[in-house]
Amino acid sequence: MTKKRLSVLKTYKLYINGKYPRTESGRYLTVKDHKGGFVANICHASRKDFRESVVAARGALGGWSGRTAFNRGQILYRMAEMMETRRRDFEAALVDIAGYSAEDAEAEVDAAVDRLVWYAGWSDKFTQVFGSTNPVSSPHFNFTTPEPTGVITVFSPKNAPLLGLVSAVAPVIVAGNTAVLIVENDAPTVAIDFAEVLNNSDLPGGVINILTGKRDELLGHVAGHKDVDGVLCFGPTAEQKKEIALEAADTVKRVKFYDDPDAKGWRADDQQSPYRIMPFVEFKTAWHPIGA
Amino acid sequence: MKDLLFGDMWGYDPAPQGTDFVELDERYGHFIDGEFVIPEESEFFPSINPATEEPIAQVAAATEETVDKAVQAARKAYEKYWKKTKPAERAKYIYRIARMMQEKARELAVVETMDGGKPIRESRDVDVPLAAAHFFHYAGWADKLEYAFPGAQVSPIGVAGQIIPWNFPLLMAAWKIAPALATGNTIVIKPAETTPLTAMLLAEIIQEADLPPGVVNFVNGAGATGAAIVNHDDVDKIAFTGSTAVGKLIQRQLAGTDKRLTLELGGKGANIIFDDAPIDQAVEGIVNGIFFNQGHVCCAGSRLLVQENIHDEVIDKLKRRMSTLRVGDPLDKNTDIGAINSLEQLNRIQELIGAGMEEGAQMHQPDCDVPETGYFLQPTIFTDVTPSHRIAQEEIFGPVLSVLTFRTPDEAIEKANNTFYGLANGIWTDKGSKLFRVAGALKSGVVWGNTYNKFDPASPFGGYKESGFGREGGRHGLMPYLKLS
């Protein structure tokens, strides 16, 4: 029996520098729904895709970190707006592919939107909370402010395909860093749907780059890349932890590991914290004499 | 016309600081579990006075077994006393240490100078008072930690392993010990092998202050002892100050463990002089930036970036100022530049001076007297340096300045940021808007505007990039020693 109308499938690509290129490798990963049905062939990002993403993230760094904190906050808030308007798509994907109940899917999207709003609000506040003026014992004006570390590679959570992504990247970019996300989970198409949210949110190209691929395959290249300033990894295995830290030492990279709780766990309030901004800021202390 | 320079037409009388009141032991071991110990099988190495080349004491090198004893003592002290000690009581212990250091300031300064070669003027006026001030500052934090990190619960990490360098032996011990104690951690600390003696005096102070045994333990030794601390399973946190090469090694060694790490590593600081700067003050800042402590300073202003149109004026004034610097006996109160810390370090500096000359830079040294014995070096500057020269990229850790030029603020920023390091930079300009813009663009943890090499216990210090991570000083210096939840 022929169908009345053949649906048009989406080609899932990568998201690099605000554009959607196919993977340079020509390789693919097959995404199946939770019942084992075919969903899509998605890009299996290569080392070269990663390198291109780092170039994009480095290129975007000056512009993004140079924006006012207020403006960065507005853009994060805009991301929440865009996500809210597309919530049915995300819910459907979580139900169909990740096998969520309708209720859980709704809860995850709610939490993801709210988390973006929450971090949006931190953009012009964490500097006041974590910076300081320092009462030195000499006639000097002395103050300390946080600044972004630079280009951060994020091995995003495997659990909570949407909320995990948001929770991982929002605290990184809110401080002015740029990011390359490497996504490996059961519903990686969600990450590319998320890229479409980003693309409609006034977020400059290159600030967040998204690669669907294999964590183990890219691990060494990421941590050893000389133009990457920090690596963030959720739920690493002991071997992954060791390899990242070992490679990162060559350029004294900042490395941070967090657990990857289950979908419900990601919704908890303790999975959002201004202290999640801290691993990828540098504190700069400036001195100036006081006198006539 | 000849300049009239003070001390030029007539000599200075020596003004030596007496040492007769100082009593040092012939041999030092370790301070473990509240006791000074020298294990029977110890191997000893001499601690040499670099100004005389004479050994002042023999110091034992701690083996893995000795380090293990120290860690066990620290663990026991953590569980048994220190984590149960009321924060307000912890504070009082640390205040005691600060006061006792002030009481013994003269002795500490003299031993610091004998052991490390730095001018008594600096150890007396900078190292010792600042070290005591660090204990004083952090003492007050011990019972106020809940105010330091809003919204978070704080708790200590456990046993901290700390490894410190030879350039500021007592001050670095204070930077490491004071915040670790205030936050409720116990400590195994290793002084540098060439400068262990003031740490032994600090251990005496800690003993006299009646800290519970094992809360602070000192082990002496070189790299192998440091590695034993880094690799010990029961150490929860490593804090290291020293070279970038060793810092990377430690970061590698800790890969795959849950030990916390902070690194304060090398630097290649730029002192940027704009043409609207107060030149005479800038010249003083340049001298202080590179010749303070013989240039054995990780945040030294070892690259001078001078705006091209004032290059000749700045260099003329700098050379004139350099000719007034007095190189010699570190115990003489008139001495500006003391002894290079060790023969090994002198050789390394000489090698890089050689590289500077081979690569085509112009070397200038003032015509000054240098003692025949001891490890001494004239203040040295190189002009015609390009960013690719080794002396513009590698940390020399000696009284050697590399001079480069720039034309625009953007070029100054680019050149200043053009190293793997990112510890400190200086900016000299009369224009506030320019100063703030350049300060914001420099990739370094410290920016000194119209000043250089200022330190304070309330002021966070630490690096960007390969100069390390973590901060010491102030509220930010508490963070590496606390778990936040």
TrEMBL record, chain A:
Signal peptide residues on this chain, from the entry's feature table: none
GO MF entries: oxidoreductase activity
Top-level taxon: Bacteria
Pfam families (alphabetical): Aldedh
Residue span, Aldehyde dehydrogenase domain: 26-255
Keywords: Oxidoreductase
InterPro entries in UniProt: Ald_DH/histidinol_DH, Ald_DH_N, Aldehyde_DH_dom
Protein name: Aldehyde dehydrogenase
Lineage: Bacteria, Deltaproteobacteria, Bradymonadales, Bradymonadaceae, Persicimonas
